[in-house]
Amino acid sequence: MTAESRERPSSQAEAPDYFAEFQAGLRFKLDPFQVRACRAVQEGRGALVCAPTGAGKTVVGEFAAALAVAKGGKCFYTTPIKALSNQKHADFAALLGADQVGLLTGDVSVNSEAPVVVMTTEVLRNMIYAHSPTLAGLSHVVMDEVHYLADRFRGAVWEEVILNLPREVVVVSLSATVGNAEEFGEWLQEVRGDTEVVVEERRPVPLSQHVLVGERMFDLEPEDPRHGERSADGELSKAERRLRHELEAHIKQQEALASFDDPRPVRHRGGQPPRRRGGHGQTFLSRARVIGKLEEERLLPAIWFIFSRAGCDDAVAHCLRSPLRLISPEQSAEVRALIEERTAQLDSADLRVLGYETWKSALERGIAAHHAGMFTLWRHIVEELFVKGMVKVVFATETLALGVNMPARSVVLESLVKFNGESHVDLTPGEYTQLTGRAGRRGIDTRGHAVLRWKPGVRAASMLRLTDSRTYPLRSSFRPSYNMSVNLIDRVGPAASRSLLAQSFAQFQTDRSVSSAAVVLARREQELEKETKRLDIAASPLSSADVLDYLARKSDLSSGASRTQQRKGRSGSVGDGIRSLRRGDVVRVPVGRRQGWAVVLSPDHDGAHPRPLVLTEAGWSGKISAVDFANEAPQLVGTMSVPKHLDPRDGRTKRDTAARLTAYTESLPAPLPKRERAAASDGPRSLREHPVHRISQREEVLAIARRQRTLTTQVERLREEIGGRSGSLARMFDQITALLADFGYLAPDPDSDEGPTTTDLGRMLRRTYSESDLLICECLRWRIWEELSPAELAAVASCVLYEPRGDDERVSRMPTRAAQTALAETLRLWSEVGSAEQARNLPTTREPNAGLAHAMWAWADGANLGDALDSHRGLALSPGDFIRWCRQVVDLLGQIEALAPSAELAERARAAINGVRRGVVALEA
């Protein structure tokens, strides 16, 4: 036991055995891993419990809560999503009694001073930074789904909580099975004290895996029980090789039949085949037929994962067009009665917009969709009916795999490719493990089943690859933000803040990778020293420097000749170069009246003679062509942030952008004139006159020199890499604090030489929780939202938050002139913030997007749900998505109300909240 754990008060000898009492009240026997973890918690130690989905790791969290109540302390149970918080609140209320349990999810507060409070992780983070009195008496914190700290958008919050909680609080971390649990446990041991690492890899219900090809179901567990295991030399077992051969042969046969049915070649991207025409030789079963086959094989109920919200809805529509019916008439009547009872308070017009009839018809057949774009009440009813056994198939996105209690007998995977928010990527073995964790109901099924649905164009190896590995490493996504930085400085000061960042899991992993890189660097340095000595001997009586100089000149001459040849054979290179320019690219205009630096405002990707719109340092904006580039490809020197909808007629915005362009380019060297560039090299003659050219064994010497040069490059790269990683978070923190000081959010502390302290602006930033926190504070600081009506304020607030799921740039106008002016000013401030971020090499704040503004304005102004969605200008937005965005806007408006520099703005923010939080939006809360 460590010193830290000994510091905690302990009276183990006299204390009652709380765990024995807890265990006696359970209706089932605990597994050894659960006992081990609970015993550690009773002893006052932290615990990291890594176990498969459904293994029962939440029992450890429930014991921590019961222990806190029994000892007169408090337990906070944190989850990553509101739906899971609601579910855990209901579980704890049943376990401990409703009066003992509270709920905090940002927009909901129930019994917040109870001894056990369930909350989203962000709520706890905010409470810590706000020095909330609710933290008094806190003894235990359970962090459910702690592997979520790898999430690139929200993961940093988990580390903020772990690092900032008082040392005496016992932290119980519950995680899916990850490949580096020991590494994560070592970090927890460093920052939290004595922590028991408990890893359970055995599934509570064994998993059978299948591939459905046409109408044939392949079992991926042949008679050899060691399926998927490699021998010592990495070879597959004989049974595994036979299975792979048989599967590949059958797939080739099916693709041949498919080609006969549809003579078009099978072309696809990322494993996604084109839609095939039906016919007598159809090899790709429809979803309805697959469900029928699952029913025949007694594999229902099933969760069918489709990595697209629209795909889930389309799958339900497809099933409704078929005669498929999975529940009895008596069950259908029971479903209908429950639905009518739960939706009685909803307006009939809203029900039509929400797709009520289609959703209800599918449920009456035992079929449903489940995804984040659905109306929340719809999802809750689907979950309830699924648990009751009255929904047999749910088409779901991967978010269902995150904690929501909906175990099934089977899991079906529609595709091996998913969209990660930026591009289509292959499903990883770790993600496959997370999804298939839903297969198999403990105490009901003897085995769970995972079915991979084959599609034309997908290779057998791609499907079998997923079964080769069941874990994935946990990688930190932690990095300091503006809000985090000012909160840390305000709480512990700059020096302690840097020290705290150095304790993060991100830096812990970085330091380990630096150690590995240092070993490689030492080896390369030894090799470099050896090669340098060899080169000195081989070059004698000349020096190694002479040989390297000759080699450099020879390389320059070769690459120059190559470029010249490419230029001669590439007649369209100038046009291609201009067409490749993107918005924000900074280029050099070499000739003409517009000579100098310019930034691209609007690219031109089409046509034989592209003419992009640019803005020069002098403030001129207009279109340029190949003539302006002297028929040479443009010199691209970098990219700067430019408002997406900059109006070239807006003089003020043009002047601001031109000034930022000047600031961006002032440190760039002026390019050499063409004549000087031509004279920079005197060509082959100087190479022939070089003394190394006359060495008899020249090629052998140059071979050594090339090896030496390669090693030199590797050593320099490794040194730069190690230097860049070491203390990287602290350096980022320093850049953030310097930027905040420039903007007036931090200032020198007159009473201390330690570093800056927060100003009044900084204290406003402390209480702003958003990805665009600094931009929001700048808008409040300069009062650019002061004159807006409540509905206009809601519209502009949506621009700061809204992030379309696709490349949605079609909406640039706001619903009113005042809102348009406010957005223009918001974009100007965003541009200023972005320039400062780029100058300090910091991640840039996301550009405001007006895609939701019309719908939000209409809703806040009193329109009904249908009219509000119609005002979205034809862009794709589901009612469920709109309601979800409304809740986020309400949260931001609440922050604006609290931070407003004037009573008038606070009053309008309150009115805007009332305008948005009504009808179905209020019901969501």
What does this structure look like?
- There is one protein chain.
- The protein has 925 residues and is an alpha/beta fold.
- The protein is 48% helix and 12% strand.
- It is built from 36 helices and 24 strands.
- It has an eight-stranded mixed sheet with strand order 4-3-5-2-6-7-1-8, with helices on both faces. Strands 10-9-17-14-11-13-12 form a seven-stranded mixed sheet, with helices on both faces.
- Helix 7 links the parallel strand 6 and strand 7.
- The radius of gyration is 32 Å and the shape is globular.
- The chain starts with a helix and ends with a helix.
Q: Can I get a quick summary?
A:
The chain is an alpha/beta fold.
Attribute tags:
925 residues, alpha/beta, eight-stranded mixed sheet, seven-stranded mixed sheet, 36 helices, 24 strands, 48% helix, disordered N terminus
Strand content: 5-15%
Largest sheet: 8 strands, mixed
Tertiary shape:
globular
Q: How many E-type strands? A: 24
Q: List unreliable stretches of 5+ residues.
A: 1-12, 222-234, 262-282, 560-572, 674-681
Structural class: alpha/beta
Average of pLDDT: 82
Q: Number of DSSP helices? A: 36
Q: Tell me the span between the first and last alpha carbons.
A: 45 Å
Helical fraction: 40-55%
Radius of gyration: 32 Å
Oligomer kind: single chain
Helix-strand layout with pairing:
Layout lengths: L2 H5 L10 H7 L7 H11 L3 E5 L7 H13 L3 E6 L2 H15 L4 E4 L4 E2 L5 E5 H9 L8 E6 L12 H9 L5 E6 L5 H12 L2 E5 L7 E7 L2 E4 L18 H24 L25 H10 L5 E4 L3 H13 L7 H14 L5 H6 L2 H8 L3 E4 L5 H12 L5 E4 L13 E4 L3 E3 L4 E3 L2 H8 L11 E6 L6 H6 L16 H11 L1 H9 L2 H35 L4 H25 L4 H7 L5 E5 L6 E7 L10 E4 L4 E3 L11 E5 L11 H15 L8 H6 L4 H5 L9 H28 L2 H16 L2 E3 L7 E3 L1 H7 L6 H9 L8 H12 L15 H23 L13 H8 L4 H6 L8 H21 L3 H14 L2 H6 L1
Parallel strand pairs: 1-7, 1-8, 2-5, 2-6, 3-5, 6-7, 9-17, 11-13, 11-14, 12-13, 14-17
Antiparallel strand pairs: 3-4, 9-10, 15-16, 18-19, 18-22, 19-20, 20-21, 23-24
Helix pairs in contact: 3-4, 6-7, 18-19, 18-28, 19-27, 20-26, 21-26, 23-31, 29-31, 30-31, 30-32, 30-34, 30-35, 34-35
